[in-house]
Amino acid sequence: MATFRGESALRTWVYRMAVNHLLNVRKSRVEREELTFSTFGDQLVVGLSDAPAARASEPDQALLEEEVKIGCTHGMLLCLDRDHRVAYILAVRGVSRHF
Questions:
Q1: Which of 22, 28, 43, 47 sits between 20 and 30 A of 14, alpha carbons compared?
Q2: Whole-model pTM?
Q3: Crossing angle, helix 37-48 and helix 58-79, to 10 degrees?
C-alpha cells in the first residue's frame, strides 16, 4: 500500500499489481512441463476412456460438472504461453465486469 499514490482507483492499482506479479513470477513446476494442446487432448482421451462412474445425486453432480469445467479451463490455460494466458485472463475479467 505504501506505493499507492492515488493517481488511479485503488481497484485499478491492485489489478495492475496482480498482473505484474503474474508476469514476473518464476515458472511453476506445472508451467515448466509445457503442456501442449495435443498432449492435453491425449490426456483427455485417456481419462474419458475410463469406465463411467455412477451418476451422483443432483447437488453432487452439479459440483462434479463444475469441477470438470474448471479442470478443462485450467488445462487449456496451461497450454497457452504466459503472454497469451495473461491476455485470456484479462479479457475474461473485462467481460465479467459487464455482467
A1: 28
A2: 0.54
A3: 150
